[in-house]
């Protein structure tokens, strides 16, 4: 096991319980979701130091805020099995003053680039087309509405990736919101 995480109890700035953050449990589900979005709650993750170093450790291509965890997990997936435990082992504080909230656009754009790299690797292509890159990036930072053709294209891309993982049932491995996002992007402005 190279990565092990858990779900979390989500709390507000005063420590009051808001809800529970659920994560995919199985290796295959984590890999599938990790193609598009971060499948781990960073504060819950344990990993082998040797594997993290072999994968390139935490890194940031610039001094700007960057999703180092999402980037590292994607690289570590190549080194072995991963898992998330059902039991919440950490509390995750939701605040408007955290690094993510203060730098949502910068981190979202960078996370979109990580997702594009992940998708290209799964589909075994050098890189995605500009159009597909824009659509995959929108899972992290959306700047516009999309067309019906684009919505169909991103849904087809999701289905191609599912087939690479051998997952045929529509909602196995990915939450329903992943499928609904392109539909919402058709009608809702950012």
Write the layout of secondary structure elements.
Elements: E1 3-11, E2 17-21, H1 27-36, E3 46-47, H2 49-54, H3 68-76, E4 82-93, H4 99-102, H5 104-122, H6 130-137, H7 148-164, H8 176-187
Parallel strand pairs: 1-4
Antiparallel strand pairs: 1-2, 1-3
Helix pairs in contact: 5-6, 6-7, 7-8
List keywords for this structure.
4-stranded mixed sheet, 190 residues, alpha+beta, 8 helices
Report on the architecture of this protein.
With 190 residues, this protein is α+β, with helices and mostly antiparallel strands. The protein has helices at 27-36, 49-54, 68-76, 99-102, 104-122, 130-137, 148-164, 176-187; strands spanning 3-11, 17-21, 46-47, 82-93. Helix 6 packs across helix 7. It is globular. It starts with a strand and ends with a helix.
Distance between the termini: 39 Å
What oligomeric state do the depicted chains represent?
single chain
Taken from the alpha-carbon principal axes, the silhouette is globular
Uncertain spans, ≥5 residues at pLDDT below 50?
none
**Gyration radius, in Å:** 17 Å
Strand content: 5-15%
What structural class results from the helix and strand content? alpha+beta
For the sheet with most strands, the description reads: 4 strands, mixed
Q: How many alpha or pi helices? A: 8
Q: How many structural domains are formed by the residues?
A: 1
H and E order: EEHEHHEHHHHH
What is the typical, i.e. mean, pLDDT?
Answer: 90
Helix content: 40-55%
Q: Got a strand count?
A: 4
């Amino acid at each position: 096991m190279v990565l092990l995480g858990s779900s979390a109890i989500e709390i507000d700035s005063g420590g009051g319980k808001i809800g529970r953050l659920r994560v995919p449990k199985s290796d295959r589900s984590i890999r599938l979701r990790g193609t598009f979005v971060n499948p781990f709650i960073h504060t819950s993750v344990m990993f082998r130091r040797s594997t993290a170093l072999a994968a390139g450790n935490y890194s940031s291509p610039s001094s700007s805020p960057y999703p180092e965890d999402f980037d590292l997990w994607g690289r570590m997936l190549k080194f072995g099995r991963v898992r998330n435990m059902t039991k919440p082992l950490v509390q995750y504080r939701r605040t408007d003053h955290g690094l993510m909230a203060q730098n949502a656009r910068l981190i979202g754009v960078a996370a979109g680039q990580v997702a594009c790299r992940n998708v290209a690797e799964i589909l075994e292509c050098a890189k995605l087309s500009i159009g597909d890159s824009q659509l995959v990036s929108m899972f992290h930072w959306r700047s516009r509405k999309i067309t019906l053709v684009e919505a169909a294209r991103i849904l087809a891309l999701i289905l191609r990736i599912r087939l690479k993982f051998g997952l045929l049932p529509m909602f196995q491995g990915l939450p329903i919101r992943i499928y609904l996002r392109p539909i919402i992007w058709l009608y809702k402005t950012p």
